[in-house]
Amino acid sequence: QYWTESFSSNAWRVRMKEHRSKYTRHRAVVEVAPYERLGAITLHFLPCDQVKVSADQTYPGIANHPYDYPRKMEEPSVCPAS
Question: For the chain, what is the largest distance between any 2 Cα atoms, rounded to a whole number of angstroms?
Answer without folding.
Answer: 53
